[in-house]
Specification:
single chain; 377 residues; alpha/beta
Length: 377
């Protein structure tokens, strides 16, 4: 019996440490463990607002694939390049992997947002099916004219934490942790403003994530930290490897994510696995990823609300005028996080669901443009 095969097309190296690339890499790894032949095609060029290098690379990659091949294109590459996809759709079975719609990225100029939305709509129309990472994103694809029957939901897996977070040592201030590249969507600027509002409380904050994806924005965030006198309390660790990131989780007392939008929020699931209380926003899929009993969620972009959510978790005994101390409040949220984490799927489970989704999204043999129907997202 011939092993199933998949051509995975991604923009740039697959080894990049963002949630989307980590998802793609873990799924490729899981498929290979199941006997699939997975060929990764890493495209050069600018994405998602594709330049000529990206366009040429996509065209050449698709043209070089054998007739009838199953091709999965990461949405970051597919959304800006509908023409090469449409040109090969009769010869190949092309599927899209959408982490979140491109036009939902925070900080885009209106003309770029509108151009990406139109381009992504055309690209998704040319794909035989779509895999998304959350039911929230599946519902959102209706705005792009994607029929629910062409969509399958495969949520990310979560690794078990090597050890639960221990929180601050005796006498040390509570440590906050945020994980994500310093780009507008992740809301580091909002977080800095919120932290300035509660500078009278004891805390330290570690920010793990690349400073290179939007250097201008990152520079503005760091300058704001300096101007507010927080440089000795807010540390930017840059992009961290797995061991360094695990150590940050283990030493933290609260996980905070000020994102304007998440298509799922893998770092939030990881925080749950580490037994951390969460303070985040209602942006995108976050309320569906994080259970209410383990988190305090506020509107995105609202630094006053974010500060108000953090303050009770950082207060000393009776320091906030309430009966419970910050440590007691954190403990209650952490217990709920651990309960929820026990039910999170692992990556092996996610890879099995991913393989089933790829198989289900098959083009019928009658020559029509519809795809196989399965459970609705």
């Amino acid at each position: 019996m011939t092993a199933p095969s998949l051509h995975l097309v991604v923009p740039g190296p697959l080894e990049q440490r963002t949630g989307g690339y980590r998802y793609d890499a873990r799924m490729a790894e899981g498929l290979r463990r199941r006997g699939w032949r997975v060929t990764v095609h890493s495209l050069r060029g600018r994405f998602p607002d594709a330049d000529e290098t990206a366009r040429t690379g996509m065209t050449a990659a698709l043209a070089g694939m054998p007739d009838g091949a199953t091709v999965l294109v990461d949405g970051l590459a597919l959304g800006g390049l509908p023409e090469p996809v449409a040109a090969e759709r009769r010869r190949l079975r092309i599927l899209a992997l959408v982490h979140h719609p491109l036009s939902e990225e925070t900080g885009l100029p209106p003309e770029v947002r509108d151009r990406l939305a139109g381009s992504e709509r055309r690209a998704l129309a040319a794909a035989d099916g779509v895999i998304v990472t959350s039911r929230f994103t599946a519902r959102g694809l209706r705005r792009f004219g994607v029929d629910a029957g062409r969509v399958r939901v495969v949520e990310p897996g979560t690794d078990a934490a090597p050890r639960e977070s221990a929180g601050p040592a005796a006498g040390a201030p509570p440590r906050l942790l945020t994980v994500g590249a310093v780009v507008p969507r992740k809301g580091h600027d909002v977080l800095v403003r919120a932290l300035a509002r509660i500078a009278h409380l004891p805390w330290e904050c570690d920010c793990a994530g690349s400073l290179e994806r939007d250097p201008g924005h990152a520079a503005r965030v760091l300058a704001d930290v300096d101007s507010r006198g927080l440089a000795d309390r807010v540390r930017f660790a840059g992009e961290c490897g797995e061991a360094a990131l695990a150590a940050l989780y283990a030493e933290s007392a609260v996980f905070v994510l000020a994102s304007h939008y998440e298509g799922y929020g893998m770092v939030l699931a990881e925080a749950l696995a580490h037994g951390l209380p969460i303070v985040s926003t209602t942006g995108g899929a976050i309320p569906e990823t994080v259970p209410a009993e383990a988190a305090v969620l506020v509107p995105p972009g609202d630094d006053a609300a974010l500060a108000a959510a953090l303050a009770p978790l950082l207060a000393g005994p009776g320091g906030d005028g309430a009966h419970r101390s910050g440590a007691e409040r954190r403990a209650a949220l952490a217990a709920a996080a651990r309960r929820h984490a026990a039910a999170l799927p692992g990556w092996d489970d996610a890879a099995e669901t991913f393989a089933e989704a790829l198989t289900a999204l098959e083009r019928p043999d009658d020559g029509s443009d519809t795809v196989g129907r399965g459970a609705s997202p």
